[in-house]
Design goal:
two-stranded antiparallel sheet; alpha/beta; 2 domains
Length: 233
């Protein structure tokens, strides 16, 4: 009990409370400022370590020394009747009240203002990342099934209008036969029809249709209908 009474008389307990509250406020404000000015991560750790080391040093100084109008003096050298620890204690009480008020103000700002700003920033960042991801996904080529084929409309080499139906029939029969292969993905006649007179290359057509193989061919009518088919991919 005598030790606690002596700690109170020398204002050690008041100094401890003021130091802890002040350190907490300093850490909170520094956290905001360090993030705003993009300080390295180690600066915050260094600050916390310095404050932790400073606590026992401050308490030791407040126990050994007393702040007088003439500066710091060793407590053992001061006559108890001339001690001003009572006045210093009142000043420390006022400082503690001010620090606590600032802490309450900070907590209110953090709850009703700073957190709302962080949520807005987080939402904006998430939307930005989603847009970026969408752009990246759009730029990335779609996976192609190796067992896929597109048969382009055949050319009519005879150049006779009445042979057009014959050429289309050959094309339809080939698509029908290929479609019966269950493991093979065959692009429909409607999808390949737009490439009848295209100037696009085979790789461009394959990329647009998402297939591994593109077949093109031509039919020429002679004495006996003979389809001539060439394939490229």
């Amino acid at each position: 009990m005598r030790l606690i009474a002596e700690l109170k008389r020398r204002n050690v307990l008041r100094v401890a409370v003021a130091y802890l509250v002040g350190s907490w406020l300093l850490i909170q404000v520094s956290d905001i400022l360090f993030a705003a000015f993009v300080f390295p991560a180690w600066t915050m750790r260094a600050l916390i370590i310095a404050l932790a080391i400073g606590l026992p040093v401050t308490l030791l100084v407040s126990w050994v020394f007393e702040l007088t109008p003439d500066g710091f003096k060793r407590e053992s050298e001061i006559d108890r009747r001339e001690s001003v620890t009572l006045k210093t204690g009142k000043k420390l009480n006022n400082a503690i009240v001010v620090l606590l008020a600032l802490a309450v103000v900070y907590l209110l700002l953090d709850k009703f203002y700073l957190q709302s700003l962080e949520s807005v920033d987080t939402t904006a960042t998430a939307e930005h990342l989603e847009d970026k991801a969408g752009q990246v996904n759009a730029q990335q080529p779609k996976p192609v099934d190796p067992a896929s084929i597109a048969v382009l409309p055949f050319d009519n080499r005879s150049r006779l209008a009445e042979d057009e139906f014959f050429v289309e029939g050959i094309h339809d029969d080939l698509l029908t036969n290929l479609a019966q292969i269950g493991s093979l993905k065959v692009i429909s006649r409607t999808s390949v029809g737009k490439f009848r007179e295209t100037q696009k290359t085979i790789p461009e057509i394959a990329a647009e249709l998402g297939v591994a193989t593109v077949m093109e061919g031509a039919v020429q009518r002679s004495a006996r209908a003979t389809p001539c088919v060439s394939m490229s991919s």
